[in-house]
Each structure stands twice: as C-alpha cells, then as structure tokens.
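Researcher: We are triaging several targets before committing to wet-lab work. For this one, the compound of interest is calcium ion. I'm pasting the protein sequence and the ligand SMILES. What I need is the predicted three-dimensional arrangement of the protein with the ligand bound, expressed as structure tokens, so it can go straight into our comparison scripts without reformatting.
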Amino acid sequence: MVRYKACCALKQESPRIMAENPFDIPLSSIERRISDIDFKTLIENRPFYPSPASWSDEVLYFLFLDRFSDSKEYGGFCDADGNPVTVQGERTTPLFNDQTDSSTAEKESWFEAGKKWCGGTIAGMKEKLGYLKRLGITAIWVSPVFKQVTGSNDYHGYGIQNFLNVDPHFGTRDELKGFVKAAHEAGIRVILDIIINHAGDVFAYEGNQRYFYYNGEKWPVSGYRLSSGEAGGIPFCEAPASFEKGAWPGGAVWPEELQSSDTWTCRGEIRQWDSFPEFLDGDFCSLKDINLLHLLILTVSGLIPLSIWSQEL
Ligand SMILES: [Ca+2]
C-alpha cells in the first residue's frame, strides 16, 4: 500500500474562496430546480456503462475523497499504464516513510488537522486510478462529492447544501464526469454516495439554539441560513426571486424543490440512537433530517427523478 504524508493537513488551511462566485463554472449553468434539468437531452444517443449482473461479484473500494489524494504527491506511485510518476509542477506531498515519519509526527497538529478539510480532490482520485486498478478493485464507492454548507468543516461530504453541484473543495462537475469516464475506461465502476436521510446544517431552530428530540415534538424554525452561516435570514419556504439575495448560491438548500418546510422533520437532534422513531425522525447531530415521506411524494409525482446524477454521468 502506498501512503503519503498528509503535508497539506499540517499547513494552515488555505483561506476559503468567498468571492461573488465561489464555483469554477458559471452559476448560470447550475440548475436551481430539478425541473430545469433536461433529462431527455442528457440521455439521448449516448452509451451507458452497464451495471454488473450482480454487485456481489464486485471488489468494492470505499474512498473518502477529502482524505485520499490531493494530486500533489511525488514519489512512489505509477500512472494508469504503470509508469512511475515523476515530479512535475507543484508536487509537495512526499511518500510516507514508516521508519522516520511515524516517530516524528506531531500528534496535536495531526489531530487538529483531522477536524478540517485536508485537501483531497477528484483530480487526485483520477490520477490514482492506475494504483486502484492494480489493487484489483472493480468498483469505487466515492464519499459524497456534493456542495457542502458554505464555510463549514464538512470535509466528510455528508452536510450537503446543494445536491446539484460539486463542492469546490473537490473540483468541478466536469472533473467528476472526466473521472467517471476514466474509471470506466480502466474497467472500474463508480458508485456515488448520495444521502437523502439528511442535508447539512442549512436552517436554524428558533433562537439559533440546539434542539433535541423529545416525544416527537416538532420544533420552531427561524429560517434558512445565509451563506455566512447566520440564522434566520431566509424564510423557511420555497424561495421566490425576492429572497434570492443571500440564498443563491451559498445559502439555504438547493435545488429549490427541497426548500419547502415540508421537506424537514424538525424534531431536533437524536439523543437515543436505539429509540424508534427518534432515530428515524431526529437530526443527525447538526445535520437536518429530511422527511422521507415528503421526498417520496415528490419522487412519485415526478418532481424528483430517482437517478439525477446517474443520468448525467
Ligand atoms: Ca431520518
């Protein structure tokens, strides 16, 4: 197994790009509503990589995107064709050496760095496809790639704010498509981790306080969060154009179909993880629980297609 020193994790975190447009692609090309997606055009006249006869035959590799590769490693790995990758450009992450590095690593800074983004990217994952292929895997399960709550430390990817865009920490939509294409060419299937149990911490309960599950009580909400993280600035309902300031693209939740207050269970954080229906309806810590019945109604009514991303990829 190849291991790298997580040098990027030890550096001070680079400042988040909070310009007017924090994305790498024009905002006009990101759909605000699922109904804006032209599925017919997306699926017409194109080949699809077939699913296996049985997924139990696949050798699955779960890959935690933020922690896998920042595409800046040098030494010790080969490209897809098996040729050693030489140092080119700004490669700053050296190979991990068990003999020396394991005894010199500074525990506190490593521990603290682990609570934040460490810098793994789609580009890094794509670059290591040769390594993964030579491991013998046939399918990669990628941790969620979608846009996380603005300014959050949700490096794990499970705190989604926009289900239709890729988080800029990880890369772009085009890079994701390019990765899937390259993986298929290498004979590797890709499974995207898409969470519908909850979204990120996209709204605040009244007083911006933590609320906890209690007897199934539904708690009052002050509103969706602004991109600054401030609570209550955006009404808790599907956003008409007048509410766009502060909501698009970094505030509230997107696509717009999810902005109805009916999307959420609003029961507060789970305390008893073995207690039904608390574990079903409560928030996963600060991550806000989605009412799956509402999601099912949207799906059955055709407002949310079941396979948004698989169609595009
Ligand atoms: Ca739930």
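Researcher: Any quick observations?
Model: DSSP finds eleven helices and nine strands in the chain.
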